[in-house]
Chromosome partitioning protein
Amino acid sequence: MNGPAEIIVVTNRKGGTGKTTTSVNLAAEFAAQGQPVLLIDMDTQGHCAVGVDVTKPKDSPTVHNLFLSDDFLLAEAVCPTAWPNLHLIPANPLFEHGSGDGDQTRLARALHDEGLTKQYDLIIIDTPPSFDGLLMNALCAARSVLIPFVPHHLSGEGIRNLARILFRVASGPNPDLKLLGLLPIMLDRRIGQHRNVTDGAALQFGQGRMLSGIRTDIKLAESFAHRQPVRSYMPNCRGTEDYAMVAREIGERLKSRYELHSTKQTT
């Protein structure tokens, strides 16, 4: 990949939509392709560390130190993992939402000023479900937003509400922000409601915004219990196949976007 890292925010304001599962497994897929990946856990539940088997002492630096000290260097919180090309900046489970000075660009500045955007091809940010300063910092730092959702009848309204937030950010502090895709998870197209919800999302936001989806697979939950990405835990299961496919689709979209941007710059 040429140029600075592509920064992808994985977000949905509703809990239980597979944000962390998606963040961990996509990070692992891209890392397995040989791309240096930095996974940042903004969610105070701290489950990304579980998914990549990182255990740190309680007083270790985390991404949330960035919002409590002007002198903190984000690079100090970077942790290696057992998987080549994959690093993690963990979360602080004790961080109180709303702490900090309200600066929405603190994360973006740290990533760029400390050179982290030059050290990695991809930076994937897992976010909390709440709409607060942490989510705004993630959105102001990113170029791409990935929205995983469970195809239930209330999902459409949640996606629309989030799309309004993205439009507001793209119209203000971060004009580079784009919706990368909508990702249905726990998907079973034999279920009428799942078909109706995913087809409705495609109709409203465009079929080109939809990703192929992640089928229901207990191995995804089991892999977290074993503290590893699903591709390592069970290479031949549906979850591994689906996240590999979604990673390919995302890679193609990012490549097309980069080529379009390069063409515009040369004309």
